[in-house]
Amino acid sequence: IICEKPLTIDEYKAEAILEAEKKSNREVRVTFNLRWPPSLVKVKELLMNNVIGDINTVDFHWNITRNHLAQYLRRWHGERERSGTLWVHKSTHHFDLINWWLDSDPVEVFAYSDLEHFGPRGPYRGVNCRNCAHTEKCPYYWDITQSERMMELYVIHEHYDGYIRDNCVYRNQIDIYDKHSALVKYANNVTLNYSLTADTDHPGIWIAFNGTEGRLEGRVGGWPDTQGVQEWKLKPLGKEPESIFVQPHDGSHWGGDSLMKDKLFRDPQAPDPLQQSAGTRDGVMSMIIGVAARHSSESGKTVRIEDLTSIKPLPNRSV
Nearest-CA neighbor of 170 among 109, 236, 115, 125? Predict the structure, then answer.
C-alpha cells in the first residue's frame, strides 16, 4: 500500500495499521515528499557527516500564509474528527523531517495550541462562500464559481460525497488550531523546539541545529510549489561561517515530488543510502508526535510516546 501523509489521525488507527501490516506480511509506504527536495536532503547529508558534532537542540519554525490556512479551513481539514488537526495533518511533514534528520525517535511531548481567529471566533458566518451575506466584508471570501475546474471537480459532485470545497472559514464546526508550539524530547536526548504559525503573510521554514562542534541554520522561503530561498549557514566553533547554496530541482514541493515518484514507480529497487523511503514505522512516529501534542495542549500534561503506541522509541534508528 502506498499512503499519503499523514498515515492516519490518531493512535488507535495507527495501532490497527501496525497490526494489519503484521498479519498480512505486506508493506505500507508513506509518501513523505519533504525527504526529497535537494535543499532538505543537504541537511541530512551534512548531519550524517557530523559537521556540527553531536546535536543538542533543534529550533524548527514553519509559517504558512493566511490563504494557505484558509484552504484547510474551507474543507474537511478544519474538523479534527476528519483531519486530526494541523498538528497531525500538516506538522506530520515537519516531525518526519526531524525524525529522519536526527535518526532518532521521540519520547516525550509538551505542547500549547489555540484557535484564535477562525471558526466560532470569527466575525462572520455563512453557509459557504457561494451563499453568504458577508462577501463584501469577509477577507476570506472566495468565489469558486469563477473556476471551471473547481466547479467540475467539486461542486457538481457535492450531492454524492458531501465534499464542500468553499465552506465558511468561520463556521462553528471548525475545531482545529491556528497556533501551535511544542517541546519534543528525543530518545538520543536531543530536544526540539517547534512551532507552526498558520496565520501569517511570511511563509517558509526557519531551522537551526545546535551541536557540540557548531551550528547549522537556514531558511527555505516561499510556497512549497516555488523554489524559494535555499541557503544553509554552517558555523563551526572557532571558525568562519560558511554559506552552502543548494541547486533546486524542478517541480513542486521544492523539487521533491518528482524525485520521490521516480523512486516509488520508476526504480523502486534503486539504492537508498539516505533512507528517504518511508514505511509504517516512519508514518506512525511522525503522526504520533502530533497526536501527543494535541493531547498535551488539551490536558496541560506531558505525553509519553510509549503510552500511545506499541513501537518502542529508539535512540538510534540505524542500529
Answer: 125
